[in-house]
Design the sequence.
């Protein structure tokens, strides 16, 4: 029985069916957000959702039986268990957020599509480096927030009146959201003709330099994941003596074969 389940679970056709069901389920969950569609097709969509959920539960139970303890040591299997488990929790008005979390089932595509799984593995591997860069960005952010509050807080309290207000203004400039008309020009109108230097220096340090470090860390992590998963091809090294010895043995075998043919 276990061997049969293992063949079914590991069969490529099973993976393709599960992938198709995940996509169909994601579409049905999106259609459920439309009141007009639910008015006409609500029972059908809900019934289809329950059927697909039942198939997911059976597939998950089959994997548990096949893999046993190894199932709970696999992070991707635990992720599937978490996503399906949320959908099985009874929902009520007080737990309506769980109903919205059903759409997390669409994230199961990550576990069945190898390329997506590779990208997520790279992002997870990049987390330590991203944490260091995030700390650097936070330090730059805090320094400029204090500087901006002291430099422009008295004349521009609506933009730099406190550290919190200044931090929001700096975030606006970091995302290039109307930084010229919304930040630089008000500073110039209040007598800070060189306020653009402060704003642009922060933009260069935060948006162009620090944030690009995030991209570099993620790309490096993806390269490492790709290299680790690539098949390792080894070429055995043969010395000249080994090659000569193999040729001599081959000649001896050919000579013996000719002798047998001559006798025959």
Sequence:
């Amino acid at each position: 029985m276990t061997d049969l389940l293992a063949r079914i679970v590991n069969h490529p056709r099973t993976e393709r069916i599960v992938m198709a069901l995940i996509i169909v389920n994601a579409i049905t969950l999106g259609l459920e957000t439309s009141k007009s569609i639910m008015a006409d097709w609500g029972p059908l969509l809900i019934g289809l959702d329950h059927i697909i959920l039942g198939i997911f539960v059976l597939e998950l139970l089959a994997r548990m039986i096949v893999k046993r303890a190894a199932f709970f040591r696999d992070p991707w299997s635990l992720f599937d268990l978490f996503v399906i488990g949320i959908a099985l929790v009874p929902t009520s008005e007080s737990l309506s957020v769980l109903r919205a979390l059903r759409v997390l089932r669409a994230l199961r595509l990550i576990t069945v599509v190898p390329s997506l799984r590779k990208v997520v593995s790279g992002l997870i591997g990049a987390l330590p480096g991203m944490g260091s860069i995030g700390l650097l960005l936070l330090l730059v952010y805090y320094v400029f927030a204090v500087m901006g509050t002291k430099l422009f807080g008295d004349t521009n309290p609506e933009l730099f009146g406190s550290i919190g207000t200044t931090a929001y203004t700096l975030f606006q400039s970091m995302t290039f959201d109307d930084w010229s008309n919304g930040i630089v020009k008000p500073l110039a109108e209040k007598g800070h003709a060189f306020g653009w230097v402060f704003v642009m220096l922060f933009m260069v340090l935060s948006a162009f330099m620090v944030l690009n470090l995030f991209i570099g860390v993620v790309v490096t992590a993806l390269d490492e994941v790709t290299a680790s998963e690539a098949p390792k091809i080894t070429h055995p090294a043969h010395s000249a003596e080994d090659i000569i010895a193999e040729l001599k043995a081959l000649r001896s075998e050919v000579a013996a074969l000719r002798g047998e043919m001559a006798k025959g």
Notes: The radius of gyration is 31 Å. The CA atoms of residues 181 and 206 lie 20 Å apart. The chain has two domains: 2-112, 127-229.
